[in-house]
């Protein structure tokens, strides 16, 4: 597939959790505008995961779309591995323009319809990977972006930030993600670096499709018009990254479907993805709505 624009040529992005799913979709969408995309995950080659998809396959697709893909195997539970990715980017690229914190562990217990007291305490790994590791990655990214006076740190969240979905740890992690990006935006406000949170609705990832078949009550969403491809959020993020007025959004939480309407972005098949604000809830944090105590 040919590159559709040169809007991100010369820009360097890092997308976590890009072996498959939304992370891979984001990487491919950025590649269509010419970005250099570092993709991280644990599955480098086939056979290392029960789910389809590898970093090697993502890189091949990124290159085919007109970008430059670089795979880095990384475990979100290992701070040294996270640090090493940023050290490599700073050494080899001398800049970082975009960090997308997408990765999060999804343990089997998360989708079970059990009470939190019936689930293993080990499920707290959702928090450790989805929030703690994201904070560490943002910390490293900011140390590159602030001196250069530009950059975007985006975190994937969702309606789960205000509406019950799956379970307690999942909702707590995503709600905290929104607040973390709100406060990062506050502290970055004079630096030229933007931090924001993005609400993605139902997405037809490999894992989600399997969940639809096995999790009670979810089969009805299999052909939902509200669902999007894994590339839809990446199309929105690419539009954000190319927006000269991006910094005005810093600290805010935004619904991807609503940003897509503003930017004229559709899904891969040309569909307009609807906002679920009226049925699933509205973001708590607006850009610029930050005051001192």
Look at the structure and name the CATH superfamily.
NAD(P)-binding Rossmann-like Domain
H/E topology pattern: EHEHEHEHEHEHHEHH
Cα-atom radius of gyration = 18 Å
Anisotropy-based shape:
globular
* Secondary structural class: alpha/beta
Number of helices: 9
Strand order of the largest sheet: 3-2-1-4-5-6-7
Average pLDDT number: 92
Tell me the number of strands.
7
CATH architectural category: 3-Layer(aba) Sandwich
CATH class: Alpha Beta
- Percent range for β-strand residues: 5-15%
Q: Distance between termini?
A: 51 Å
> Major sheet: size, sense and barrel closure?
7 strands, parallel
Low-confidence stretches: none
Total tally of structural domains: 1
Helix content: 25-40%
Overview of this protein structure:
This protein has 293 residues and is an alpha/beta fold. It has helices spanning 21-31, 55-64, 79-93, 125-148, 168-187, 206-214, 232-241, 256-263, 277-280; strands at 12-15, 36-41, 68-73, 98-101, 151-157, 193-199, 253-255. The chain has a single domain, classed as 3-Layer(aba) Sandwich (Rossmann fold). Strands 3-2-1-4-5-6-7 form a 7-stranded parallel beta sheet, sandwiched between helices. The protein starts with 11 loop residues before the first strand and ends in a 13-residue tail after the last helix.
